[in-house]
Amino acid sequence: MDNRLSNKTKGIIFILIAAFGFALMAMFVKLAGDLPSIQKAFFRNIVGPFTAGILVYKHKASFFGKKSSRKLLLLRSIAGTIGVVFNFYAIDNMVLSDANMINKLSPLFVIIFSYIFLHEKVHIKQAITIIIAFFGALLIIKPGFNADIFPGIVAMLGALSAGAAYTCLRSLGKSEPYYTTVFVFSTLSSLFLLPYLLFFFKPMTLTQLVLLLLAGVCATISQFCITLAYKFAPAKEISIFDYTNVVFAALISWVVFGVLPDFISILGYIIIFAAAFYMFLFNREP
């Protein structure tokens, strides 16, 4: 990459690549069709151990992390696996950009978990912002007394699980290199999901297999890119650019699937993005 670029610019470029990669991942997952979410998650994650493993070997790092980090690595892997499975279910059963936007609530859950487990202070403005963002999520989910809201609830639980995983990453980032963290997560996640495949595997076509492996490639590249993004620049300066993922997802949903979010969902997007933008400005304050 051009050395004349500032670290902040490099961070923005990497986070934009990651956002586009995750949108492509969601597209491939949805295109794979009628397969169990757990099966999709397994083939999405199976790419990670090979790519991350090569980097771990190249840097002569630990495949299993430091002994003091292993509890957090395990918790991150459990929460991350649940988050991926739930997110894939939401992607299959909702408008693509709706599912992606609800998943973007995860940074707000990080604030809650950081308060509970890391004893970080929560400002009253942060608490109010979280409440407003959840109101935006309700506009997307459109709760009613029927089964139609189930995918939305699963999407929220997926965002919550992802928030728990990211909270673990906040601590792991200080003690483990990104390739070790990705290797442990991808490997453990695949092992967690393997028993389901052994008993409930649903036959796939070659096309479905290729689509899921492409989803895995996109997800792995995006994980590396987002890790590098935060290496070059702090989250408070570039995190807002991660929301371009929803724009990419909406465009893909329109071009590939011929579906656009309705007006109420778009209103929910605006509210969640406004809440995220306010938190971005708040976190930039000295």
Looking at this protein, list some descriptive labels.
mainly alpha
Q: What's a quick, concise take on this entry?
A:
77% of the residues lie in helices and 0% in strands. The protein has helices at 7-31, 37-45, 47-58, 70-93, 96-103, 106-117, 124-141, 150-172, 178-200, 206-232, 235-238, 244-257, 263-284.
Structure description:
- This protein is an all-alpha fold and 286 residues long.
- It contains 13 helices and no strands.
- The protein is globular and about 45 Å long.
Rg value: 18 Å
SSE run: HHHHHHHHHHHHH
On the 0 to 100 scale, the average pLDDT is 89
Q: What kind of sheet is the major sheet?
A: none
Given as residue ranges, the uncertain stretches (5+ residues, pLDDT < 50) are: none
What is the helix content?
Answer: over 70%
How many helices?
13
Which geometry do the CA atoms define?
Answer: globular
Give the N-terminus to C-terminus distance in angstroms.
30 Å
Classify the secondary structure makeup into a structural class.
Answer: mainly alpha
Task: Describe the SSE topology.
Layout: H1 7-31, H2 37-45, H3 47-58, H4 70-93, H5 96-103, H6 106-117, H7 124-141, H8 150-172, H9 178-200, H10 206-232, H11 235-238, H12 244-257, H13 263-284
Helix pairs in contact: 1-10, 1-12, 2-4, 2-9, 2-10, 3-9, 3-10, 4-5, 4-8, 4-9, 5-12, 6-8, 7-13
